[in-house]
Specification:
The protein is α/β, with parallel strands linked by helices. It folds into 2 domains: 56 residues; 278 residues, 3-Layer(aba) Sandwich (Rossmann fold), CATH 3.40.50. Helices cover 44% and strands 16% of the residues. It has 15 helices and 14 strands. The strands form 3 sheets. Strands 1-2-3-5-4-6-7-13-14 form a 9-stranded mixed β-sheet, sandwiched between helices. A 3-stranded antiparallel β-sheet has the order 8-9-10. A two-stranded antiparallel ribbon has the order 11-12. The longest helix has 27 residues. The radius of gyration is 24 Å and the shape is globular.
Length: 437
């Protein structure tokens, strides 16, 4: 019922938003004498604040048309290269030849499926495009997926990842940002255990909840204390008509957003007060920065209930992966079977979502990866979002990730050798030795 009331509230306020927007335009029109007075600017600012706080924020666009490489602007084209009902894989094609020295290796960024759209990683994509051929998972808002397509759970998520990896034929490196650290590690574990040659060459896990028993945060404690049954009874709702996914059981994005806002409410209130002052003072640059951030931050998506509840239970309540108890469709997931895929873990010193040590736990459970092919990095002075975005990500974290990828990139020729090993007889020892990590 809460979801229906949420929708009715938006519909009820629509006329008021229209009036407010008209008021804003009237008092910002330079031909209106009141627009040059403190009273007029205050009225325009108040009208904008009302419109923004009652608006439904739609899915933003990546809008990456070009990127700077070696001091030159290079055109970028966004293209869908793989698609299923709950996700599509986007490729940011740069207008440079594969043989160009800055073309870089293929990098698949797995965006979090935790309430925000993949566009939250726009800065991450732009930064990595300077050094790599970038792809990203663009998860679909569950309320936009018709019920006829069935449910989507954590096992389906892992299946999607395995299919994506297979499409690259092993010529890819993967970067998991926050939440997907667990399913990425699970997918790679399953592929390595099965001897699948299409596993990625390296995986970088960033600020992810691999083991939330380590330095648990408020979010982790809440999930563990209440358990999956509490969440099933209190936060799962059905999508109302007329959305395409009507009647689908979901964890609504507006509930996730309200939780995030409550965690740092004072900071968000101060930011909106600052916006009001900037608007009254005519500080357009500062106001634009606020709009740009909150247009992204306030745009949220629904999560399929099956995926959300299974993730809560598996990752935050039972801690199944680090305990060696996580399974995928009846098959035990064994990170200790990973031998060929290199591992990098990245954490932020001030992360209040995934505490320090939670991502590093992957190093502990991936016991078979050689020491020369694993690295951990703790970035001082950054919180959760600073792990994958912002100035320190661009200047300190991203170069380290690129160096790690470069040092573990095997190239296409060795890739063919690996395929040869899979079909070789036990007597062909020379071939086997040529591809030993």
């Amino acid at each position: 019922m809460l979801y229906q009331l949420y929708e009715l509230n938006h519909a009820f306020l629509h006329p008021a938003r229209a009036v407010s927007d008209a008021c804003r335009l009237l008092f910002r029109n330079p031909l209106n004498p009141w627009s040059h007075t403190p009273v007029g600017r205050s009225l325009a600012a108040s009208a904008e604040m009302f419109e923004r706080t009652t608006r439904r924020y739609g899915k933003p666009a990546f809008g990456i048309d070009s990127v700077t490489i070696d001091g030159k602007r290079v055109a970028v084209r966004e293209r869908t290269v793989w698609s299923k009902p709950f996700c599509r894989l986007l490729h940011f094609e740069r207008a440079i030849a594969d043989t160009h020295r800055t073309a870089g290796s293929k990098l698949l960024i797995v965006a979090p499926m935790s309430g925000h759209y993949a566009t939250l990683l726009r800065g991450t994509v732009e930064t990595m495009l300077e050094r790599h051929d970038v792809y990203i998972t663009d998860w679909t808002d569950a309320r936009m997926v018709p019920l006829a397509h069935g449910t989507f759970d954590l096992d389906d998520y892992i299946d999607y990842l395995i299919e994506m990896f297979a499409s690259f034929k092993g010529d890819v490196h993967v970067m998991a940002v926050c939440q997907p650290s667990v399913p990425v590690l699970a997918a790679v574990s399953l592929m390595e255990a099965a001897g699948n040659p299409d596993a990625p060459q390296s995986m970088t896990l960033m600020g992810g909840p691999v083991d939330t028993r380590e330095n648990p945060t408020v979010v982790n404690k809440l999930a563990e204390e209440r358990g999956a049954d509490w969440f099933r009874a209190n936060v799962i709702m059905h999508v109302p008509w007329p959305h395409p996914g009507a009647m689908r059981a979901v964890y609504p994005g507006f509930l996730q957003l309200s939780g995030f806002m409550q965690m740092n409410l004072d900071r968000h209130v101060d930011a909106h007060q600052e916006l009001f002052r900037h608007l009254v003072q005519g500080d357009g640059d500062s106001a634009d920065k606020h709009r740009e951030f909150y247009d992204e931050y306030l745009a949220v998506m629904d999560l399929d209930a099956a995926y959300y509840l299974q993730t809560v239970d598996t990752v935050f309540v039972r801690h199944a992966l680090p305990k060696g108890e996580m399974s995928h469709r009846g098959t035990l997931i064994e990170p200790g079977k990973i031998k060929r895929v290199a591992l990098m873990t990245v954490e932020g010193e001030n992360d209040d979502i995934s505490g320090v040590g939670q991502t590093h736990a992957a190093q502990r459970i991936c016991t078979a990866i050689p020491d020369a092919r694993r690295v951990h990095y703790l970035q001082p002075g950054v919180g959760h979002y600073g792990v994958f975005n912002g100035s320190r990500f661009r200047s300190e974290i991203a170069p380290r990730i690129s160096d790690f990828i470069a040092s573990n990139h095997r190239g296409k020729k060795i890739r063919r050798a690996i395929r040869t090993v899979k079909t070789a007889t036990s007597g062909e020892k020379a071939s086997r030795q040529t591809v030993t990590p």
